[in-house]
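Student: I would love a firmer grasp of how sequence relates to backbone shape in proteins. Thank you; the sequence and its tokens follow:
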Amino acid sequence: MTSGNTDNPVVTYEVVDRVAWLTIDRPDARNALSTEVRDGLWDGARRFVDDDSAAVLVLTGAGDKAFCAGGDLKEMAETSLEIPPPDFLPQFGRNIDVPKPTIAAVNGVAYAGGFLLAQQCDLVVAAEHARFAVSEVKVGRGSPWAAPLSWLVPPRIAMEILLTGDPLDATRAREVGLVNHVVPAAELRSSTQDLARRIAGNAPLSVAAGKRTAYLSAHCGLTEAYDRAEEIWAPVYRSEDAQEGPAAFRDKRSPVWKGK
């Protein structure tokens, strides 16, 4: 799948060993979120949800300078954009349900809308030179999408990120919990692919339920979270895969997951 000019696509989609790579390919503009890019991200996200050949999505940017530098400010100025519409950009878990795991492979700056894209992924792997910032306060724009930030990082860290607009380097982002792994730039793709492949190799029903369980505490109190977790996992326990796992262990073979 490509989006934009077929000779120079601005978003590409490819599946490698059950891992879908959704890449913003606009490096000369620091992978900024033009209309074509946003449309391509929507198309790619929807394709991944429906793609039975892909178990994990990796979102990244082309080049080594920027994952995504945020909105296309020139385009915003030309269109006099005020409040972005609800479907301005796919926000995983907010305006599009993505049951399968997602990983941001951050290959440079992730500012503003780029920070949003990384924030909404389930996991983040960052190159050593990556930088993260909610930079809207520096250009008079807004970041209502940052509402989950104080769930992802300590509240005072979230406050500093939002009020200063100053970037965090990859090491600091990992220290505060925004990033899972920091790797050399040359190893970003292979390290992310390896992480995604390990997830893709697990029982799909358990992976999907695990993702839903992890987000429960962001939406409800502990007692309700336990109750809802029991509901989420009940069909997993009753599945054929739940019998296949122990049987494969007993028989000293690799499990064959059916997803049912």
In short: The chain has two domains: 2-200, 204-251.
